[in-house]
Amino acid sequence: MKSAIFSDWAEWLPRLLDGLWVSVQVTGLSLIIGLVVGLLLALAAFARTRLLTWPAVLLVEIGRGMPALVMLQLVYFGLPSVGLTLETYAAVVLALSLTTAAYTSEIIRAGLRAVPDGELEAADALGMSRSDVMRFVVIPQGLRIALPTLLGFAILIFQISSLAFSLGLPELLSQAYSIGANTFRYLDVLTLAGLLYLAVTIPAGWLVARFERRLSRHLTT
Amino acid sequence: MKQAESILSLRDVEKTFAGHKAVDGVSLDIARGEVVAVIGPSGSGKSTMLRCINLLEVPDSGTISVDGKNLDTSGTVSARDLTQLRRRVGMVFQSFNLFPHMTVLRNISLPQERVLGRSREEADRRSMELLERVGLQQKADAYPAKCSGGQQQRVAIARALALDPEIMLFDEPTSALDPELGLEVLAVMRQLADTGMTMIVVTHEIHFAATVADRLIVMADGRILEQGPPQQVLDDPQHARTRTFLSAIKDR
Ligand SMILES: Nc1ncnc2c1ncn2[C@@H]1O[C@H](COP(=O)(O)OP(=O)(O)O)[C@@H](O)[C@H]1O
Ligand SMILES: [Mg+2]
Fold this sequence. Notes:
A: mainly alpha, MetI-like fold, B: Rossmann fold, 4-stranded antiparallel beta sheet, 39% helix
């Protein structure tokens, strides 16, 4: 009995690994795009650039307030009604990027603001330009402060990427469902899929914790 | 005073925070090479006056001139004027304010590279010279967290000096330090005064004021209450408030 499960798992594994690879891809792309936008939003908020304020606030509020599942559905089904039809893959990346940008902009902004005012004053008093103060003092320290939280969020968005199954993107959960539909062995295949998620998230969590300890070394005063 | 030679002049400088006059019409001329100590009760506007000098606070009215160059602070100060001013006026804070993610050497070299355009080698050479002067060349590669408060403050002094300022402002540089660590900072400042640096030092270290300063200024309520040679002000204060304040700090 037991060995039967393992031989089934061995049979399903290649498809599930294909799905896992898609999950990793959309997560990675969303993180790259979302983090760049999130950093820009955080910098704009930090500099209190009036120009960017209200679109930025809107994006952040919508991105954080809207359930990721709703965001996915809206991007996929809603954008065609305004003349923009995206392939499933692109729609998922766009929706997850928006969610990522909204959350990470707040995480990064909190990191930037945690840099002590005294250091900014000292940099000002030394005659450093606004952009140099950001580049050499605020951003490196702010990102370092934000990094553990950002990495934690990265693990979260990887889990959230499973919601893309609702749009039929062939990621890990979709693959598991379609195997389940063919074999009626939903529980077995979902267990294997769950283990594959854990095989990524648990080691990633450990790495984050180790990284966090290493980063805090110079900063303890 | 020596009006013609004054390197720094404040005229009727005022700064108000939320309806409260932190600095209320201060005029001051400081001669090149002069060391001025500033004392006064907490909240009397000492920090705000210093911060107005390098425009960390922009005064509401009045003029500030450094080396004869007037800064009209009522309009907006251009970024260029601001940089020019700040590279000539160095400032040391009570809380050191080193950049904790950079080594001691980087802390001192980076501003030279960014503000004066020195090359990395040139900046590092100058930084090492200054670290030697403050007795910390062995700490060049350490991070600030690995330095004592006194060492951090000496690094902060070296960092400000590295830009070759003409005037140095000190805002209670030893107040955050244990007495013996304060002494090593005061020794560095004493040595700096001996080299002829123009200095304004807000401090409660009466002994330092008495032995190093050329002039002692007493502030109260955003104004200069009295000023003169330190011994004269300390031995024969003209105002009752000065007497009260002096006996309060002597009792500590
Ligand atoms: N950034 C600020 N915002 C509001 N009030 C301030 C600010 N800085 C100083 N003050 C007020 O101005 C007055 C003078 O402060 P300060 O110059 O720090 O005095 P001192 O350095 O002599 O203790 C105080 O009443 C203080 O509360
Ligand atoms: Mg003060």
